[in-house]
Amino acid sequence: MVAAFAEQAVVEAASAATREAARALVRDGSLSVRDAADMLGLSHQRVQQLLAS
Known about the structure:
Order of helices and strands: HHH
Low-confidence stretches: none
Largest sheet: none
Number of strands: 0
Strand content: under 5%
Helix content: over 70%
Structural class: mainly alpha
């Protein structure tokens, strides 16, 4: 049970880090959503979702 909580914490931290990276690339780095998606290895739709959340 403890391992499941630890795994969930890691997943949540990774999601938050990805969201912050997307925001930094698009807003601070002045990249397009598509360029940020390429750099992160995500679809442009996913990056758009991350920016909206």
